[in-house]
Amino acid sequence: MNPKEEPAERKNGYFGPYGGRFVPETLVEPLRQVEEAYERAKKNPQFQARFQQLLREYAGRPSELYFAENLSLRTGRRIYLKREDLLHTGSHKINNALGQGLLAKAMGKKRVIAETGAGQHGVASATACALLKMPCVVYMGSEDVERQKLNVFRMKLLGAEVVPVESGSKTLKDAINEALRDFCAHPDSYYLIGSVVGPSPYPEMVRDFQRVIGDETKEQILQKEGRLPDAIVACVGGGSNAMGLFYPFEDDAGVKKIGVEAAGAASIVNGKVGVLHGAKTKILQTRDGQIEGTHSISAGLDYAGIGPEHAYFADEGIVQYVPADDADALEGVRLLSESEGIIPALESAHAVAFGIRYAKTLPEGAIVVINLSGRGDKDVPTLMQHWKGARTTDVQGETALPPGIRADKDVPTLMEKLGLEKTEVKEKTKSFDVKEKVETA
Ligand SMILES: Cc1ncc(COP(=O)(O)O)c(C=O)c1O
C-alpha cells in the first residue's frame, strides 16, 4: 500500500461535505480506537507484510487482468476484465475482510460482527475469522437469506452465526442497522464493515484495503498495452470494488471512470444528501427524510446509500455514475457466460452490461477495463428461477445481443484492427439451451 497525501477537504474523515461520524455516544470511543489502531497498522511494517502475504498466498493475488478476446472481437474495442472473481471465496470482499480481520486481531478483539447483502462479505468475514480464530456473527436481511442460500450455508460451514434480519426491507440496509445495534450493545466487539460506507474511519480504511484492485490494474495494463485504459468500469453497491479500482486512477484525467448503480437503488443518480449508517452521503429518501425502498435483482447493489467518497467523486466530476437495471444485469450474465465462458455475479454483471455498451461509443481499438467483482455461483438459483419457462431466444442467440454489439460476421475486419492473429479466432460453439438445462435440473 502506498498512501497518498490527501487534500485538506479530504481529511479527518470527510470527503468535502460528505463522511464524518454521526453515531450514538456509545460508539464514539470504540470508533476512535479503531481509527487509532488503523493509523498504527498503516505504519507498521509487520502488519503490512502479513496483510500482503495473506493477499498473495491465501487470497490468490494478484488477480489476473484478462484480455476478453471474444468480447473484443464482438465490440471492436479492447475489453479487459479484472478477475476479482478468481480470488478465494469468489469476490473482492476477501481483500477487506483479511485487512480488517488482522486489525481486529491486532486490537485484541474477541468477537467480530459483520453484515452482508449478497453474502460475499459475510463469507469473506467468516473465512477471515476462521483463519484468525475469532467468533463471527453475520447479520443478513431475511430476503437476502432467501435469495443467497448458498452463501448462508457457506458462512455456517465456516463457523459463523448467521442472524436473519426481519425489519424494514429485510435487505442490506437493515442488516447494517442491526450490526450497528450489536456494536452499540457490545462496543468491545469489532465491527467488520463490508464496504466503503459507515462512520469514519471505515470508508477510508476499506478503500485502502481495496485499492490493490486499481494498483494492480494500473501495473498490468501498462505491461500489456503500454498505456492507461480509456475507461474503467465497476458496479457500485456501497462502492468498495469501484473505489478500489478508481482511487489509484483518480489523478489520471484521461481515464474515464464509470460507476454503475442498480437502477432501483441509484443513490448517486437519484439520491439527496442525508445521514445514513453514521455518514453524510447521498441517500434515496422520501420528502420527509425516510429511507426509500430499493430494488435490485442483485442483493449486493440493493442499498439506499453509497460510500461518502463516491458522493464527493460525483460532485467533483471525477467519476460518472450511471444506472443499469435487472434486464441489463441478466443480459450481462448471459453475454459474458456465452462469449467468454465466465459466469459473473449479478452485481458485476451490471458493470459488464454497461461497460460493453459504453465501449461501443468509443473509437475502435479503445481500451476498456471492467471490474469483475465476483463470480456467479451464488446467483444460479436466482438465474434458474428467472429463466424458467423463458423462450431460448430470450436468453441466447443473436436476437438477445445488447444494442450496439456487433454480430460475429464482422469479426475478420475487426481482428485486423485489433491486431489479432487470424488463427486466434475460435469457431463459435453452439451455446447450450438454458431453458432445457433449467427444466431438467
Ligand atoms: C460480487 C459483488 N460485487 C459487488 C458488490 C457490491 O459491493 P461494493 O459496492 O462494496 O463493491 C457485492 C456486494 O455484496 C458483491 O458481492
Brief overview:
This protein is 44% helix and 15% strand.
Structure keywords:
441 residues; alpha/beta; six-stranded mixed sheet; 19 helices
Give your account of this protein's structure.
The chain has helices spanning 25-43, 45-59, 69-75, 93-106, 120-132, 142-147, 149-157, 172-185, 202-210, 212-225, 240-246, 267-270, 308-316, 326-340, 346-359, 380-387, 392-395, 411-418, 434-440, and strands at residues 14-15, 18-19, 65-67, 78-83, 112-116, 136-141, 161-165, 190-191, 231-236, 256-262, 272-276, 279-283, 320-324, 367-372. The chain contains 19 helices and 14 strands. α4 runs parallel beside α5. 44% of the residues lie in helices and 15% in strands. The strands form four sheets. It has a six-stranded mixed β-sheet, sandwiched between helices. A four-stranded parallel β-sheet has the order 7-6-5-8, with helices on both faces. A two-stranded antiparallel ribbon has the order 1-2. The protein is of the alpha/beta class and 441 residues long. The site of pyridoxal-5'-phosphate has 21 residues, from α5, β9, α11 and α15.
